[in-house]
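User: Fold this; tokens only.

Assistant: Input:
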Amino acid sequence: MATTKQRNRMPESAFAFPEQRKEPLSDASHVRNAIARFDQVEDVSDAERDRAWKRILAAARQFDVEVSEKSWRDLMPGGKTRR
């Protein structure tokens, strides 16, 4: 687990949600965590979720993480964000 100092040094491109610096994608474990916690990320739009999902899938390919879901909506209760 990265310390706060290490996390603060990470480039925005290392996060699923770079503007919020949420869900780092630095290794296979973090990619799995980002998928597991995807529905817990608050205050992001569906467009931001679309972009984050693409980043997660790219990181999953890079770190050889199997992803069974076709869309981030498969991770959300009812297939949409809570509002």
